[in-house]
Protein 1
Amino acid sequence: MRTTYDDAVSTLYQASVDTFVTERKRLAGELKTAGDKAGAARLAKLARPSVSAWTVNQLFWQARDVFDELLAAGQRLRAGDLAATQAHREAMAKLRARATALLEASSHAATESTLRRVMNSLSALAASGGFDPDPPGALAEDRQPPGFDLAGMELPETGAPRENRGPSLEIRPPPPAKERGSSGRTPAAMVQGRETRERERKELEEQRRKSEAERRELEEQRRRAKEDRARKEAQRRQLDGALHRAKRELESHKRQVDRLKSDLAEAEKMLAQAESAVAEIVARLGAL
């Protein structure tokens, strides 16, 4: 079956973080072989997801029923149906448990910071209604819920659920004007802005680290390829030398065979002459 670009993207983002680069190269090769050079080039540029973004993707692929429950609850909340708050909490609690299991089953630790980023991304996806502009289940970076404080909504806790209620999306009124700063922004919004900038800085550092790791990996691959070419070239030169020597020995043996054949013909001629002389002598003796 011919591999399409969309199929390749879905397959790529279901791969583990550790094998992402190798799988991306393999799938890009399949697209190129299938004649989709533009798709292969687009696929080769897709970024490797962070561990938390990878976890969200796996929840989409492996816990679709609960994921759909979360999106449905988010849609109801956006429409003003506050009765969906409980459904949202329950879906978030289920997905947090599944995320913990996924991380523990992989080579990545289910740390509180990782789970917090996972839950933030899930809240953002529920608030926006899906992965757009990314393809479904192909999140490369963490998402941040858009303007919860200013919209009068509280981001769910990612720690242990309070009173066993699980993560929640609570509706609350905006803070009174006296609590706002001189710029018109609430203190909570200002803190959130600083935290967002700090997260973005850390994400950029992480992306640079990943890019540097990929660069080193590519350099290592080029180095190994260069060494492999040099080794094969040395083997080729060695075999060329051995072939040249074998040909010279063959020619020498052929000349020796020709000489031996000539010597044999001469010896056979002399033998015939000797046999004739012996026969003549025997005849003369018989005549006496």
Note: The mean pLDDT is 82.
Protein 2
Amino acid sequence: MLSEYSCGRAELTRITALAAQRLGARIIEHTPALGVAFEHGRAVGVRLQDGILPAGQVVLAAGAWTAQLSADLPIPVPTVPSKGQLIAIAGAPLMPRRILGGYGGGHIVPRTDGTVAVGATKERVGFDKRVVARNSRWCLDLAAKLAPSLLDGEVTSMWTGLRPGTPDDQPIMGRMPGYDRLWVASGHYHTGIQMAVITADLMASSILMGSPDPRLQSFSAARFGG
């Protein structure tokens, strides 16, 4: 299975986009989504800067930014960004060939470019994506505990990403309460890549059936409503 660590986030995004296009999806780049367009309580599309992009069904799946797209809804989708910082190491005398983990939730993951990714931190610092020296030290401490030979390798890159967390650390999936044709799939925190396939299957089948799969009931956004 491809992972964000093994092939890189940009490469994973590119592969997923190509696969979607081959199945008939239309991808619009450099076009910010501002919110959901409604008519008589029914989602009819997505609001863009230059108008409305019509849609028969709308799914809020914007990761850590999902909360911003649902800000006008009576029941919120309270996703919060959880920052993760990683480093990549190459050329160590002994490079791990398998995923190593178990220390503070961190992992060491071999990548297809010959480096290994070490991380990631878990921080609730808003949308701050800065690479911080203290967090790089955390990654090096992780490498020292799980694969000490990596400390003799070269740090080739450092980066951060934002996971979509939730107040109860559980995903938010299913139909948005009170609205027709509006769905949500977000808040998977650090399991988004692992849960992507089953999430897509459950959401697609629910939309085609016109009602949420019973397995999605405990993940409904209704649990955050007043």
Note: The domain at 31-79+168-224 is CATH 3.50.50.60 (FAD/NAD(P)-binding domain).
